[in-house]
Design a protein that fits this description.
This protein is of the alpha/beta class and 608 residues long. It has helices spanning 7-14, 16-49, 58-102, 106-109, 114-127, 129-156, 158-167, 170-205, 207-212, 216-269, 275-344, 405-413, 435-440, 456-461, 470-479, 483-486, 506-520, 536-549, 562-567, 585-591, 593-605, and strands at residues 366-374, 381-389, 394-399, 420-425, 428-429, 442-445, 454-455, 496-497, 524-528, 554-558, 570-575, 578-583. It has two domains: 80-104 and 111-318, ABC transporter transmembrane region fold (Up-down Bundle), CATH 1.20.1560.10; 366-605, P-loop containing nucleotide triphosphate hydrolases (Rossmann fold), CATH 3.40.50. The strands form three sheets. It has a six-stranded mixed beta sheet, with helices on both faces. It has a four-stranded antiparallel beta sheet with strand order 2-1-4-5. The protein is elongated. It is found in: Cell membrane. Residues 20-304 form the ABC transmembrane type-1 domain.
Length: 608
């Protein structure tokens, strides 16, 4: 696969007209600068050397004033074009980042800190402004105007032209050396900022937990360490900027001094120059060096922006790589399973390697074939030799804490990819299906479902697609047992709740999550101990809602309650990451001592 062009190259291709306009305006600006110097030298020659009357130079001064106004307008126009390019580039990059995050695969979404992603989407994209608003216009000016000035300098006084030509390369050479260091420092700066943002947001979201466990002071020190690291990196960039400015000023002053000395010798000692020529050259030389100096400053800002753009590009590349690997696996799975489906008469519509198979029928059959998963080398490993889940079955996953129940649920749901083996849905590998189409058929309700800042109705509507009515939302709330709660609220379903469900109890959050599922009506419903920690009354309400919701769906739940276990069609018993046995409640009681012991402990403790 060919490597995609860089993000900057993509942006440049979108601004061809703007760059052409910059080139034309820079050319006009160069002509205006030379014309201004020529007119000013002529005016000074006539007034102070030739002692001409003021009336005779009024026209010349008027033209000079017009040229100066034109130069100002052209400089302003260059700046406006740069700002327009920057605004469009930032809008495009931010849209690309948001689109990338929105369409990222579920597995890539689980990686990284939220604060770091927010930092890239906001701060890093904003920092890219300087590249387009300052760096590009200055570099375009530097590519055209100094050449025009050099041509005039050589035609008027060759020695000055050679001095400019010999001293000018020191400025871009120094710019390159400093720019490389600046780019590296800038990338380090945004890495530090992403770390700081991630640490700060994580700490803010878990502040209550940190206080309860007495870790607030330690986390405060961690935030302080991250903040100081960001400060030090920023100050390092400023140090480079100040050094850059000092060196550029030194080179410029030295260059102007050499030219002025040479002009003075030629004018006063050898009398080989006229005053008009010497003054014209002396006016153009500071313009020449000023352009290069401003380019050096813009180059520094541009390299800083390039570091920020590199962070954006890196995030896009990382996500795209994950998606590309996923697509490659899908194509391989399609090719591998094509012959099998022809022989077995699969119930799916045929598809080419570039199309996703259709998810029919629903609810589907789900099979795990010699599936293994490991989070990292030398870490916890899950092993499931063979699991078959028929359409509409109610499956319970049981076992001690840390036995791999939730990991198995994640594999079945498609949140995690197996390290080896396959998860088959209707006889086809799960990851050959379109991810969006698959998750349209799945609801996953955890112990702590996430509630967004907004009204109850808005949070329920998240669980469905478009074209839903208020009546649909109200019906879903009633079926989930949430209507009894909203009836006591002054604004009902329009009651506002805080981020993370602030203002709602655990049971109310679970009912809201169930209401989302009732509105969605999925074919597969996954529960991760949804009733743990709830009071008996609330648990019974939720159990009735769950029973109603799962009448026409496959239900897979991580269960602890004996009631839930006994009602299951099949029970999967996990121990130390391995599937030990599966079967009905009665079957496991007879043949699996570990299961019998677990049931005995629950009966003794009254957990029914």
């Amino acid at each position: 696969m060919k490597r995609k062009s860089s993000l900057i190259a993509q942006q440049m291709s979108l601004h061809r007209r703007s760059r052409l306009l910059l080139a034309l305006m820079s050319l006009a600006l160069g002509i205006a600068i030379i014309s201004q110097a020529t007119l000013m030298a002529e005016a000074v020659q006539r007034i102070f050397v030739e002692k001409a009357s003021f009336a005779s130079v009024v026209m010349l001064l008027g033209i000079l004033l017009a040229v100066m106004a034109l130069r100002t307008l052209l400089s302003y126009g260059n700046g406006k074009v740069g700002l327009h390019m920057a605004a469009q580039a930032k809008t495009h990059m931010r849209a690309k980042v948001l689109q990338n995050l929105t369409h990222a695969s579920m597995s890539s979404t689980l990686h990284g800190q939220t604060g770091g992603k927010v930092s890239v989407a906001l701060d890093a994209v904003d920092e890219a402004d300087s590249y387009f608003s300052q760096y590009m216009p200055r570099m375009m000016e530097a590519a055209i105007i100094p050449i025009l000035i050099l041509v005039v300098a050589f035609t008027q006084h060759a020695n000055t032209g050679w001095i400019l030509l010999c001293t000018a390369p020191f400025i871009p050479l120094f710019m390159i050396l400093v720019g490389l260091q600046t780019k590296n420092k800038s990338e380090e700066k945004y890495a530090q900022l992403a770390e700081f943002s991630g640490t700060f947001l994580d700490s803010l979201q878990g502040l209550v937990t940190l206080k309860i466990f007495g870790r607030a002071d330690r986390q405060h020190k961690e935030i302080e360490r991250s903040s100081l690291g960001y400060r030090d990196t920023t100050m390092g960039i400023l140090k480079i900027a100040f050094t850059n400015t000092f060196m550029l000023e030194s080179i410029v002053m030295l260059g102007i001094g050499i030219v002025a000395l040479e002009l003075a010798i030629q004018l006063l000692v050898f009398k080989a120059l006229t005053f008009h020529t010497a003054f014209l050259v002396l006016l153009l030389v500071p313009e020449f060096y000023s352009l290069l100096k401003n380019t050096g400053t813009a180059f520094h800002s541009g390299r800083t922006s390039m570091g920020a753009i590199r962070k954006v590009e890196q995030m896009l590349t990382d996500t795209n790589t994950t998606s590309a690997q996923s697509d490659g696996e899908k194509v391989a799975h399609n090719n591998k399973s094509e012959n099998t489906d022809v022989m077995a008469g699969a119930q799916l519509e045929p598809s080419s390697s570039t199309e996703h198979p259709v998810l029919t029928p629903m609810p589907p059959s789900i099979d795990l074939m010699d599936t293994h998963f490991r989070y990292a080398p030398d870490s916890f490993e899950l092993e499931a030799k063979k699991i078959s889940i028929k359409p509409g079955e109610h499956i319970a996953i049981v076992g001690k804490s840390g036995s791999g129940k939730t990991t198995l649920l994640h594999l079945i749901s498609g949140l995690l990819k197996p390290t080896s083996g396959e998860v088959l849905v209707n006889g086809r590998p799960l990851f050959t299906y379109d991810e969006a189409a698959w998750f349209e058929q799945v609801s996953y309700i955890t112990q702590h479902p996430y509630i967004f800042a907004g009204t109850l109705a808005e949070n329920i509507a998240i669980g469905s697609g478009a074209n839903i009515s208020r009546a649909d939302i109200e019906q879903a709330a009633e079926e989930a047992g949430l209507s009894a709660v909203t009836a006591q609220l002054q604004q009902g379903l329009d009651t506002y709740v805080g981020e993370g469900g602030r203002g709602l109890s655990g049971g109310e959050k679970q009912r809201l999550a169930l209401a989302r599922a009732f509105l969605k009506r999925p074919a597969i419903i996954l529960f991760d101990e949804p009733t743990v920690g709830l009071d008996v009354h609330t648990e019974r309400i939720l159990q009735r809602s769950i029973a109603s919701l799962t009448q026409t769906a496959t239900m897979i739940t991580v269960a602890h309650r004996l009631y839930t276990i006994q009602q299951a069609d099949s029970i999967l018993f996990m121990e130390n990451g391995a599937l030990i046995d599966s079967g009905s409640h009665a079957e496991l009681l007879d043949r699996l001592p570990q299961y019998a012991e677990m049931v005995h402990i629950q009966q003794k403790g009254g957990l029914t």
